[in-house]
Amino acid sequence: MKDKLEELRAQHESRKYLLKVLEDENIRFKLKLARILSTDFDRRELGRLEYFQSRFLKMDEQIALLRHEISEQQGILASVPAKESLKEAIESEQMIDRRFTMVQQHFDVLDVDFYHYVRQAFPQV
């Protein structure tokens, strides 16, 4: 039981770090977008840039929800001495793992889409 608890805690810390990386990368996207908007760009691209801004904001929401779930799991992990708490912690970990995988996949698609678009539409930036 103690080994499983330590494994869950290690996964929890790792996931918090990886979530911070996603958050930092999403900030980097928004800064890149701000740099583009501060240039003399073709105004016909404005709709597409707004589309990406919307996707960045949706990613912020997904990250915030996941951060909240991870925070809740931290409370569960803190109360694990009872066997039923360990079961709850394992179930929580599995749910968060699925959500994190989904958010990571969405992020990866956003990363590819945005940088492909930027290289194509704004090679000078």
From TrEMBL:
This is Uncharacterized protein. It comes from Chitinophaga oryzae.
